[in-house]
């Protein structure tokens, strides 16, 4: 049976949703909504709101709301960028880093529970396949 890209995409999205749903209670205990978690997890790599919106593929207006909430919760700081005074740079507070790390641990634990069903060789193959897929096409 041939498997096409759309089927694999759908399965991947379902897996991500199931793992996130299974961790929703832990995220709630941390005071995080799911999308706020994604913002926390991405801000180190994309510290400017416009970059964050592009990286997470969400509207800039939504990023503004999530950032405002995370600042109010004490998880994030919004500061004027010293190199460009017109831009705000985002960074995590110590509390934000701790919340992000705890949420990532919960997600990793849930994902590990699911990976336990897969042989070590299949896990190695999956890692190799995912890394190959992340490479830029030539």
TrEMBL record:
Q: What is this protein called?
A: HTH marR-type domain-containing protein
Show the SUPFAM superfamilies listed in the entry: Winged helix' DNA-binding domain
Q: Which residues form the HTH marR-type domain?
A: 1-135
According to its UniProt entry, one GO biological process term is: response to stress
* UniProt organism field: Streptomyces malaysiensis
Write one Gene Ontology MF term: DNA-binding transcription factor activity
Q: Which Pfam families match?
A: MarR_2
